Amino acid sequence: QPCCGSLACLRFQMNYNSLVNNISAQLNTLDPASVKNVLRSLARQREMLGKIIQCIQEGIIAVSSDGKILFANNTAEEMLDFELSRFKNHNIELILPGIDCADIARNDNPSWEKKSTAEIEIFRPKHRILQISAFPLEKGTFDDSMDGFVAILRDVTREKVDEEEYVNSEHMQR
Q1: Which one, 7, 43, 46, 53, has the greatest CB density within 10 A?
Q2: Using CA atoms, how far apart are residues 101 and 93, in angstroms rounded to an integer?
Q3: Which residue, among 58, 84, 74, has the nearest Cα to 153 in the 3D structure?
């Protein structure tokens, strides 16, 4: 299971612009030097969280409810053989066919938890079995009108191969 910290970091990074907007009224009451220090501190925190997200071994993709890719970390790009710079704002179906974005993104849907984890087999760039956990995000995470979800990808190929080998060895011993 992905750690809560990675999802919290991702949520913080995506909410950065909203955070800045929400505190701008308070910043207006500060002197210019204090405002400058607060903004520098926020920029450092955002940079640090961005680096943490890029180092996570799981792939992370943020997707709008209409299926547009909004963010992906380096691991997701490597696992699915795509470049965020080329696929940002393109439909997730281009790299992960069969994802029902609207259903996952509707966090009021009582069935989303049942559908939140799935395994898929991919063959490009190499054969892998990926476990995908999708977490709907609250409306306003990306902007005031859009909701979406974060998909966390974990490569479980080795585990599945080991499991299959174990089952086969058990059958051969009988």
Answers
A1: 53
A2: 9
A3: 58
